[in-house]
Amino acid sequence: MESVGSFIAYVIIALVIVIFSVMAVTTRKILRAATYLLFVLFATAAVYFQLDYEFLGAVQIAVYAGGIVVLFVFAILLTSHPGNNGKVLESRKRVRALLLGVAMFVIGGISLVSRADSLLSRPDMPLLDMKALGTALMGTGHGQYLLPFEAVSILLLGCMIGGIVVARKK
Q1: SS3 sequence, the chain?
Q2: How many angstroms separate the CA atoms of 105 and 95, rounded?
Q3: What are the angstrom distances between the C-alpha of 103 and each of 21, 98, 116, 146, 167?
Q4: pTM as predicted
């Protein structure tokens, strides 16, 4: 990020991600939660485009914002009545959950800051080009990730089918 304008744009995008993430997990309407998730995924793509990772930004929009959210919306519309509000969850453990969330945020921030210092002190680290990244992600050799990628996609498909079957048996 070279200029003040790009820093301001980054801060705005980060605020959009944080605000819509919180809205996605706090709303009681499930269809709105999927819509808020869509906004978060678009803002994440904007971060990729700002960092000049056009390929990752396009994949983010095509796969996640275009594909996954559409699957979520179809699953929601097939299994529930999206206009109905969910039940208000009552729990006495909200304070503990809030404290745990704050603690995890602090631990994550400390880890990020300590790791960023070690990465910034190594200017000789080579940049990864898109061909090497594509080979690493979609290769079948040692240390490449095509098989885990396919296994996770089959697992997610099974979870969606299981969720639809359980919701239909009610």
Answers
A1: CCCHHHHHHHHHHHHHHHHHHHHHHHCCCHHHHHHHHHHHHHHHHHHHHHCCCHHHHHHHHHHHHHHHHHHHHHHHHHHCCCCCCCCCCCCCCHHHHHHHHHHHHHHHHHHHHHHHHHHHCCCCCCCCCHHHHHHHHHCCCCCCCHHHHHHHHHHHHHHHHHHHHHHHCC
A2: 15
A3: 19, 9, 20, 35, 35
A4: 0.58
Q: Long-range contacts for 155-164 (Cβ within 8 Å, ≥24 apart)?
A: 160/71, 160/75, 163/75, 163/79, 164/75, 164/78, 164/79
105: Cβ contacts below 8 Å, ≥ 6 apart: none
pLDDT attached to residue 72:
79
pLDDT value, residue 84: 57
- Give me the amino acid identity at 101: G
For 58-82, write each residue's pLDDT tens digit. 888 888 877 888 877 777 777 766 6
Closest CA to 62 of 48, 77, 51, 50: 48
